[in-house]
Amino acid sequence: MSKIISRGRRIGRALAFCTVAAAWSLLAARRSDGSARTAEAANAVASGVTAALTAPITALHDATTRAHDDSERLLATIDSLRGRSGKLVARQMPRSSKHLSFFTRLFGDTVVRALGVHDLTDSTGTTRFALITIRDFTEKQDGRIGSYRIGFWPNEQGEAYGGAYANPSGFIEVTPENMNTAVSKHFRLSDFLTHDQKGTWPKYLVLREDLVDKLELVIDQLEREGHTVQHMSVMSGFRTPQYNATGGETGGRASLSRHMYGDAADVFVDNDRDGRMDDLNRDGRVNHRDAQVILDAAEKVERRHPDVTGGVGVYKATSAHGPFAHVDVRGYRARWGLL
Fold first, then answer.
1. Who is most buried in 60, 76, 82, 183, counting CB within 10 A?
2. What's the predicted TM-score (pTM) here?
3. φ and ψ at 94, to 5 degrees?
4. Distances from the Cα of 271 to the Cαs of 233, 248, 268, 276, 278, in angstroms?
5. DSSP 8-state code for residue 102
């Protein structure tokens, strides 16, 4: 944008000089013979030259103004999609959504209706935001999409659950090429994948944007309290119903786990990337009290943002994992563990 404006100013100065030179020569001719006809001709030619030479400048100015206005509208739209934290950098949209037209205006109809991740870039080629077009829930057939096994939600099995336990709206298709797509400042799609079917691609993910937003707000709160958070590790994000019932360590899992609905994550702060919780309370030990620091931050976040109210639990270390905190956005307050 600045290059366009600078070029326009240089052209404008050159054309203005030409205009003045032409008018000056013709007016000099008028003074030399005193002819009214010559004077009129001089004025007409000067006006014509001015109009002709300034037209490109006017057009350039109008184009620059339109580009600036479009850029401002685009940035305002993106800002409105960044969530409460201001840290979201992607949004999801089922192909059957009634809100699809909103994103069509930003990305174009062909792109929006194509499954996958669509980057919105600025004039420098920098990705400013991403739209993730997801598969509708009805595309799951016989408990799977393609060769990826997902299983069945309770509502599909005749159990009447509604509200927070309704079937998800759809699935993000995750491939080796898009798995590192950022969904916020600190998190990527790959952080929330179910830990199974390692060699099967594409994989499918349910992820609530409110969960990612809440985790970013918790990080903000921790940093406000003096805890540096360079990396928050997601130990467990989305779990397919099949995996929740049979995969990994099933002990202690709820049959209606929030992890199946994409709005829960088991997390710990791991700035040194050693796979274990950091010593958040600085008492020289790493234990459940460090997870309690995350819970306390989540409490403050929920007081400021009651629309992300949910469950927070504290878990002690075991032989299989270190201490961690469970965070979700189920819609009502729940607390458990060593409080």
1. 183
2. 0.77
3. -65, 150
4. 9, 26, 10, 9, 7
5. H
Nearest 5 degrees, angle CA 170-CA 173-CA 174?
140
- pLDDT tens figures, 75-108: 566 667 899 999 999 999 887 776 667 777 766 7
Secondary structure of residue 133 in the 3-state scheme: strand
CA dihedral 36, 37, 38, 41 (to 10 degrees): 120
**Average pLDDT rounded to a whole number, residues 142-154:** 97
* Beta carbons within 8 Å of 181's beta carbon, 6+ residues apart: 90, 117, 130, 132, 188, 189
Task: With CA atoms as reference, report the closest residue to 321 among 251, 255, 261.
Answer: 251
Contact 192, 237 (CB under 8 A): yes
- CA-to-CA dists, residue 239 to 11, 51, 68, 196, 229, angstroms: 61, 68, 44, 9, 25
- Residue 318, burial from CB neighbour count under 10 angstroms (0-12, 13-18, 19+): exposed
pLDDT of residue 60: 46
- For residues 100 and 91, is the Cβ–Cβ distance under 8 A? no
- Please check whether residue 145 is in contact with residue 206, taking contact to mean a CB–CB distance below 8 angstroms: no
Question: Cα–Cα distance between 232 and 118 in angstroms, integer?
Answer: 26
Q: How far does the chain reach from its first CA to its final CA, in angstroms?
A: 54
Indicate if the pLDDT at residue 137 is higher than 90. Answer: yes
Rounded Cα distance, 240 and 228, in Å: 32
**ω before 202 within 30° of 0 (cis)?**
yes
Taking Cα atoms as reference points, which of 67, 96, 87 lies closest to residue 3?
67
| CA dist., res. 329 & res. 327, Å (int) | 7
